[in-house]
Design a protein that fits this description.
Blueprint lengths: L17 H20 L5 H23 L6 H13 E2 L4 H16 L1 E2 L2 E2 L3 H12 L5 E2 L8 H17 L3 H22 L3 H5 L5 H10 L10 H20 L5 H31 L1
Antiparallel strand pairs: 1-4, 2-3
């Protein structure tokens, strides 16, 4: 049995430049969340995060390559930090965005960065500045319009980078392990599954784990990694870690990318020996 992840007309005819897919998705999430629930403390904090991401991207890319680059990726990291970081101060927003961008230039393997930038920035900030910031974790409540807007925008944009399978696999894995947790703890399955309705998970499912730069090249590999992220998250959630999905991606994502590159090189070496 086969399933199609392409969108029906007229969505399939929408053409979105790849560089703008991430910005459109994250802007749609911000719009829906803020209009519905006013999740931003102030626009100043959001703009400080975006500005820090722009400056860090421009300066580091210029220093490393000697060239200027498109800042659409920096916009995504900046706006993500602006949405996810919760703090009464401005500097955690800017620092999280700057760390996110810097990770792309510091932690690299075989010519590419191995951490999802925003996820890396969030995890580092949780470790070094947990007394000054937290991460957005409120629920959407019963307002399904925000959810509808996010998923429409998300599905359109995710289909353009051909990563819907990652979302579907992770959600299925999360629900399966929510059931396992409910059996293990004796709690309610609905309570264990409820985090999927939160804004933190909307960003995580539709944006972080589908990042084309930090996902594997094959569908099978992508699906395995998505399931493994949900599996590792299981143990963090059993340990009552509030930010379990971020920790799981932080561990699984880089290992998977490094393994894939190593495996592909091994196959290429083997093929060259056979010739």
């Amino acid at each position: 049995m086969s399933f199609s992840t392409s969108l029906p007309e007229p969505f399939s005819q929408i053409t979105i430049p790849k560089n703008y897919i991430g910005p459109i998705l994250i802007s749609g999430i911000l719009f829906a969340a803020h209009i519905s629930f006013g999740i931003l403390d102030t626009w100043t904090k959001l703009f400080s995060a975006i500005g820090a991401a722009f400056i860090t991207e421009l300066l580091l890319h210029r220093f490393v390559t000697g060239k200027w680059r498109d800042i659409s990726s920096a916009y995504v990291s900046g706006i993500s930090a602006g949405i996810l970081v919760r703090s009464p101060m401005i500097w955690p927003f800017a620092l999280c965005a700057a760390i996110s961008i810097a990770s792309k230039y510091v932690f690299r393997y075989k010519g590419t960065h191995i951490f999802n930038p925003t996820n890396f920035g969030i995890v580092v900030m949780i470790i070094i500045a947990s007394d000054s910031m937290a991460v957005l974790s409120i629920q959407w409540g019963n307002n399904m319009w925000a959810m509808l807007v996010i998923w429409i925008v998300g599905l359109i944009t995710i289909s353009k980078v051909n990563r819907f399978n990652i979302c579907a696999t992770y959600v299925a894995g999360f629900l399966f392990f929510a059931w396992i947790r409910s059996i293990y703890t004796g709690g309610s399955f609905m309570a264990e599954a409820a985090p999927l309705t939160g804004p933190m998970y909307q960003l995580f499912v539709l944006f972080m784990i589908t990042d084309p730069k930090t996902t594997l090249s094959t569908k099978m590999g992508q699906n395995v990694v998505a399931f493994l992220i949900a599996f590792v998250e299981l143990f963090f959630r059993l340990g009552e870690a509030v930010y379990a999905p971020f920790y799981a991606l932080f561990i699984v994502g880089p290992i998977a990318l490094i393994f894939e590159k190593w495996w592909n090189e091994r196959k290429q070496d083997a093929a060259s020996v056979v010739r």
